[in-house]
Design goal:
Layout: H1 15-29, H2 44-64, H3 67-76, H4 86-97, E1 100-104, H5 110-118, E2 121-125, H6 142-153, H7 156-171, H8 175-190, E3 193-194, E4 201-202, H9 205-208, H10 211-216, E5 221-224, H11 227-230, E6 243-247, H12 250-263, H13 266-275
Parallel strand pairs: 1-2, 3-6, 5-6
Antiparallel strand pairs: 3-4
Helix pairs in contact: 3-6, 5-7, 7-8, 7-12
Bound molecules: fe (ii) ion.
Residues 4, 6, 140, 144, 149, 190, 205-206 line the site of fe (ii) ion.
Length: 277
């Protein structure tokens, strides 16, 4: 399973929406790394979807997003009024943490996605979710990528965790090891929480880009972040998460997840999986 996928519902199948999405995705298909990222001429309706969702997210972030995430988002400085052009976001990120963005036509296979992370590139879609269903995205869209991942990548400590996950995937050879690294990625970079005085707060890109899940995540079973515990924990990317992991602090997240990605190999992951049997 691709840890970067975010399926909350099946695609609408609306042909006009699909055609528009394919048109924007075609820009990414033609892109060669190093080129200037092509501008998308977004319609007023597409900007309106961004505005609707981004305003609601900003409001919920104040009470439900981790302070470290909020600071990073402020550094990135993306507004709520209109969809930003990806090249502008990429330039800003590159100045802040050295990370770069590469346009993506859709979900990128986890192995390739992580290989790019190891090189400091994040694959980002440019199309926006269907305006008929602004409350969820059938697949990663520009809202998820920029507000969720882009914000985190504006902080050097979060950005380093992305790099370490990428390097770990590049290091291992077995499919089982890639899948387990993907699971740790899911429970941290996509759905991770950090303790705060008023309760756990989100930094994971999937949660901070879903205002429905921002309202719900505190109802999940929230466990202390532990890699070994994840072995027996399932997840379903099509639903709000039933189990989440909270780190005591960003330093604790770096120790646990960063430490795991930094040192794991096929043999150590195999031992972890065997121990759980
Ligand atoms: Fe994602």
């Amino acid at each position: 399973m691709d840890g970067h996928e975010r399926l909350i519902s099946t695609p609408t199948g609306d042909s006009a929406y699909r055609r528009r999405r394919d048109e924007i995705a075609a820009l990414a298909t033609a892109y060669v790394r190093g080129d200037v990222i092509p501008e998308v001429e977004y319609t007023d309706a597409e900007h309106a979807v961004w505005r609707l969702v981004a305003e609601r997210l900003r409001e919920r972030h104040r009470s439900h997003a981790a302070p470290e995430f909020l600071e990073a988002a402020e550094q990135l400085g993306v507004g709520v009024e209109e969809i930003p052009q990806l090249q502008g976001v990429a330039d800003r990120l590159n100045g802040l943490t050295g990370f770069r963005l590469q346009p993506a036509a859709g979900v990128v296979p986890f192995h390739r996605f992580c290989g790019s992370l190891a090189d400091g590139y994040f694959h980002s879609t440019q199309y926006i979710r269907d305006g008929v269903t602004p409350f969820y995205s059938a697949e990663p869209d520009v809202l998820h990528e920029v507000i969720g991942h882009g914000s985190a990548l504006a902080d050097s400590r979060f950005a380093n965790l992305y790099r370490l996950a990428g390097e770990a995937v590049r290091r291992v050879e077995t499919e089982a090891a890639v899948q387990f690294i993907s699971k740790v990625f899911w429970f941290t970079i996509e759905c991770g929480l950090l303790d705060a005085p008023d309760g756990p707060r989100a930094y994971g890109a999937s949660i901070v880009s879903s205002y429905g899940e921002l309202d719900q995540f505190r109802s999940a079973e929230i466990r202390r972040l532990t890699i070994a515990d994840m072995v027996g924990t399932g997840y379903d990317i099509t639903r709000y998460q039933e189990t989440l992991y909270s780190a005591r602090s960003l330093a604790h997240l770096e120790d646990v997840a960063g430490g795991f990605w930094e040192s794991c190999d096929d043999a150590s992951i195999d031992r972890l999986l065997e121990a759980a049997k």
